[in-house]
Amino acid sequence: MLENPEICRRLPVDVFVCEATGAAEAQRRELIQSLWSGYGEIVRYDLRGAEVSSVVVKNVVFPTRVNHPRNWHNDHAHRRKVRSYEVEMAWYRDWSGRCDDFCRVPRCYGMQSAAEQHRMVLEDLDAAGFKLRKEFLTRSEATLCLEWLANFHATFLGEEPAGLWPIGSYWHLATRLDELQVIEDEGIRKAAPLLDAKLNDCRFKTIIHGDAKVANFCFSQDGQTVAAVDFQYVGGGCGMKDVAYFLGSCLEEREQEEWEKELLDAYFATLRQSLKRRGNEGAWNALESEWRELFPVAQADFYRFLVGWSPEHWKIHDFSRRVALSVVDDCHHVQEG
Length: 337
Hints:
337 residues, alpha+beta, Phosphorylase Kinase, domain 1, 2 domains, 10 helices
């Protein structure tokens, strides 16, 4: 993997892509998307004379002025964003090679960083057969993504997240204290440290994706397999954080309430199978018991973030509110007892 800070200063993107892939020529084809708050762009490049016909370049340039769509920008937020790209590069350099076809991720051909710029040359998952993106999922499609998460969590169960976020996910409390202060419900504000501690102090930890929303899953044309992208918030923690966040991102309220048990069962069935395949099933009963108990805590924790960050967000609805407030009430009862 090509990684040289000096190259970033002197090579145009197309030349660096050729250096990373061995291509004779690289030509910019299309903008895939702009990065959040104006931090750069993701672009597809066509290649000539390489083993693959195209790659995707994530080109991060830290802006001098930030336009956050929800006005949540300050120095702390900027540092968190900068750190997230450093973590993503560490993920591709040190960890991503351990992911197999059961938890497919893009290959990284090269990366570079210098001053206010980072670049990553990544496998084009569209060209690899994962062309489809979805906003909402059927039950079987949601199960596919949960199986990806289960295999991912099994792969890294018990690992120390060296180079990654010590606590994975973009919403965990230590990074979202500004949002906490504006929550109107005093009960949620007081319960926030308790929810955070329950998740962080769990016995069974893994490496979590940290931003496992439906938009970060890529589906094969036949709908039978998925791959995942966007590892800016990958780090340590309880696997239920990914599961709770994912289900809230891809299902409407009625579906989430009606399908939740079945989908959670599917996740745990795959997790057990994956751990067994790795010879790591020894403490299965204790793990399943702990994580099932923490699932609603993870839901409540994400709800805590949402009501501070964007109180009108579509993911806030009667079901998510009922689950969160029930967990919050339990926390207060335990504290008072």
